[in-house]
């Protein structure tokens, strides 16, 4: 802080995009800095929502599109459990849902969005928003492959949305 002579013994991140780079302040000024800190400053409401959703999932990395479908998402845990600790703790794996429970025309779209069946319009919509943002060409330097992925994502969501909105009793099952 300009004109402050107190020793800088307290750190605070310089920005949202650079949380590992710090300013160092005295106690009084780090308190002022933290009070004025707004993590979501400059983000649109949509971006804030995305950030909140990502935080809810501990900012886990994405998965390759199409490789992990509803089945893998649902039944397979990404670690081994040789001592059956999870079973003993009552945290049994959810049984794998047979993919043939989903209407045949939705199996591809569900896999594309990484959704299990049954799903709800809300679930499908939020997953679509998340993926569409991540694979938007603007977020990938105008990458043509990203453009193709985005088209696939949009088509998958459109198919699921159409099905759920024209047959509400299926949506209610979720
Ligand atoms: Zn100070």
Descriptors:
2 strands; two-stranded antiparallel sheet; single chain; 2 domains; 174 residues; binds zinc ion
Short structural summary:
The protein is mostly helical and 174 residues long.
Q: Give the low-confidence spans.
A: 69-76, 91-96
Query: What is the percent of helical residues?
Result: 40-55%
CATH H-level homologous superfamily name of the largest domain: DnaJ domain
How many structural units, i.e. domains?
2
- Mean pLDDT across the residues is 75
Q: Report the CATH C-level class of the largest domain.
A: Mainly Alpha
Using the CA coordinates, give the radius of gyration: 22 Å
CATH fold descriptor of the largest domain:
Helix Hairpins
Using DSSP, what is the number of strands?
Answer: 2
Please tell me the CATH architecture of the largest domain by its name: Orthogonal Bundle
Question: What would you say this structure looks like, in words?
Answer:
With 174 residues, the chain is mainly alpha-helical. The chain has two domains: 37 residues, no CATH class; 104 residues, Helix Hairpins. Helix content is 49%, strand content 8%. The chain has eight helices and two strands, in the order ββαααααααα. Strands 1-2 form a two-stranded antiparallel ribbon. Helix 5 packs across helix 7 and helix 6 packs antiparallel against helix 7. It is elongated and about 70 Å long. The N and C termini lie far apart (55 Å). About 8% of the residues have low confidence. The protein binds zinc ion. The site of zinc ion (ZN) has 7 residues, from helix 1.
């Amino acid at each position: 802080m300009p004109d402050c002579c107190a020793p800088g013994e307290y750190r605070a991140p310089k920005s949202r995009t650079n949380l590992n780079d710090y300013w160092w302040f005295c106690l009084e000024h780090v308190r002022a800095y933290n009070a004025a800190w707004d993590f979501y400053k400059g983000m649109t409401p949509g971006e804030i929502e995305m950030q909140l959703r990502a935080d809810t999932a501990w900012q886990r990395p994405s998965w390759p599109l199409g490789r992990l479908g509803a089945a893998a998402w649902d039944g397979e845990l990404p670690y081994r459990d040789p001592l059956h600790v999870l079973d003993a703790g009552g945290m049994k794996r959810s049984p794998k849902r047979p993919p043939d429970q989903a209407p045949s025309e939705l199996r591809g779209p569900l896999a594309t969005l990484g959704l299990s069946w049954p799903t709800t319009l809300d679930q499908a919509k939020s997953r679509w928003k998340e993926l569409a943002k991540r694979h938007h060409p603007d977020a990938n330097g105008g990458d043509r492959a990203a453009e193709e992925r985005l088209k696939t994502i949009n088509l998958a969501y459109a198919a699921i949305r159409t099905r759920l909105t024209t047959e509400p009793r299926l949506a209610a099952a979720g």
